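Final report, closing paragraph on structural work. Over the funding period we assembled a curated collection of sequence-structure pairs, and we close with a single example.
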Amino acid sequence: MGKYFGTDGFRGEANVVLTVEHAFKVGRFLGWYYGQNHKAKVVIGKDTRRSSYMFEDALSAGLTASGADVYLLHVTTTPSVSYVTRTEDFDCGIMISASHNVFYDNGIKVINGKGHKLETEVEEKVEAYIDGTFGELPLATRENIGRTVDYSAGRNRYIGHLIAMATRSFKEKRVGLDCSNGSASSIAKSVFDALGAKTYVIHSEPDGTNINRNCGSTHIETLQQFVKEKNLDVGFAYDGDADRCLAVDENGNVVDGDLILYVCGKYLKEQGRLNNDTIVTTIMSNIGLYKACDKVGMKYEKTAVGDKYVYENMVQNNHSLGGEQSGHIIFSKYATTGDGILTSLLLMEVMLEKKETLGKLTEEVKIYPQLLKNVKVSDKKIARENLAVVREVEKVAEVLGSDGRILVRESGTEPVIRVMVEAATHELCEEYVNQVIDVMEKEGLIIE
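Its predicted structure, as stored:
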């Protein structure tokens, strides 16, 4: 990770960690970098946070000042920016979003012309420019100054792309959608309505400050209750920028990214469409997923946490399906990033083709209890490498043996250490997670 760019862009509290000056400089550099040999074209999307409008203006100012033309998708999803960038000959795309974070955070995600996350070497150059070590960049003048173009048509074309991918009508299916008061609010319902579903939507009235607030994929309990109350066939919850999807089955049970990978992976394998008969997971995936995969002969690989690393593995090894427990699911045939709405459409395809409920499709996987706690620390690296903490983690790992596991890692987007334990019971998970956190507290590593 760089000084400003983490595993998912430049993210932090708006006008505290990430300022309009930062955004302007990111725009200035990208406009110059991609416009050295031609007039650069950059597409920008944003989520519903109040600060997203401010950053959109700052980025646009920086880009046009460097001579780039800017195309505004307005409120849209991260995967739509990726789709438009790679299919319409843009030099790069920018999504303004802090994903699942609270409303006062924001972020700048840069997507290259192939629809992938920006290369590390380019991020490093952006950081050098922000810090004043790269040198001055020329300002465009006269007719070379860039222009800003309303490009809501690009978002509409993405909606058409999603609708065209469905292989079956959703007629008579009762579907619940939790749009997290975020980007999905402008897209998801229209897609499901067009495919014939009886669509029931919650948290689709963004006001700039309610994104992810007690809703969406990070607070799925609301959708669980909604599905049961309305007697729905299935529910889907997205995060703020809709690159994640978690589901709820007909009984109100959560279907997380691990279960989605299993259901879709097994189906694609049966169809002969799962490249190498392999899914790509991260080290956070549940032991229960791997045991279920072993039973049906489905292979798996493990990467570091982050959809960026999942996708890199998929590209390197020609795998077609990968993702994270958190709901970032990548279907490489259709997308280069996680796409929450696409994931929900493909889950619907499995249910319809197999003529099974989501609850039935997931019952083969016996998920081990898992507990994850986030601990705010002053220095992530020092906290993770503290000798007393390392010894306690090793002690817990030895006790768990093959009946569980412990993971302690740094967050790529927040100043926290994540402590996760899988074990035979919830009580054991709680006990072992707290043991490690207690040591961190005694070592003076935790801040309020």
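The chain is about 40% helix and 20% strand. The two ends are 24 Å apart (CA to CA). We thank the funder for supporting this effort.
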